[in-house]
Each structure stands twice: as structure tokens, then as C-alpha cells.
Predict the structure.
Amino acid sequence: MAQDAAAGEKVFVKCKTCHEVGAGAKAKIGPPLTGIVGRQAASFEGFAYSESFKKKAAEIGTWDEAKLSEWLADPAKYAGGTVKMVFKLPNEAERKNVIAYLATKK
Ligand code: HEM
């Protein structure tokens, strides 16, 4: 299935409780996601990331679509420990679309 950024914008409604994206986005419950595709994992200055995620971030390096999809499917499983994002996006098409949307937000 092709990626659909417009459909992904609708999926992002689920993320908005915790995340802002775009110019001037600020930290909420989660870090802002502006420029997340290609950004170093767990690197938003001043955000109190979990220890498990900070450890995993060294291995993740910069986020790409494949890694973001694994994170979104099950953050704790991907990080291998307790993380602060207690939300999963099990639907693969939704993951692809929301990542395509995020890729437009630089
Ligand atoms: C972290 C995406 C939903 C809370 C992250 C990160 C990404 C992300 C990419 C890593 C950020 C970084 O490396 O700086 C998303 C997307 C969502 C979503 C696309 C919707 C599909 C949520 C929801 C919550 C949440 C609903 C709150 C209930 C957090 C928190 C972290 C985080 C607290 C930091 C994790 C830690 O330090 O362990 N999210 N998220 N997210 N997210 Fe989300």
C-alpha cells in the first residue's frame, strides 16, 4: 500500500494528546516531532526521556521510516525496557501514513 501523508495527518490526531509538530512546536507529554525523520533519537534538548529509550537511542542513531515503524508498533518492546510512551499503533498502514505525514514536517 502506498504511503499517504494526507491520511497520516488524520492518524496524527491520535498523537496530538502528547506531541506537537511543525514550526514552533513545544514539548507536551512527549517531545515535539518536527523533523523527526532524520533526527537523532531522544535528542530534543531539555526533554526528560526514559532511561531505556536513551540507551536504545545510541543504537537507533537517526530515525528512518523502518525504525519509526518499529517504535510505533510497540515502543517498550523496541526499546527493550520501560519507556514513557505508553501508546501503540498496531495498524501497519496507519504507521506508514503517519510517518509519511511526519516526513513533510521539517
Ligand atoms: C516519544 C511518535 C503517540 C508520548 C516518541 C518518539 C516518537 C513518537 C517518534 C521519539 C521522539 C524522539 O526521538 O525524540 C509518536 C507518534 C504517535 C505517538 C507518531 C502517534 C501515532 C504518543 C502518545 C503519547 C506519547 C499518545 C502519550 C500518551 C511519548 C513520550 C515519549 C514519546 C512520553 C518519550 C518516550 C521516552 O522517553 O521513553 N513518540 N508518538 N506518544 N512519545 Fe510518542
Notes: The first helix runs from residue 5 to 11. The chain has five helices and no strands.
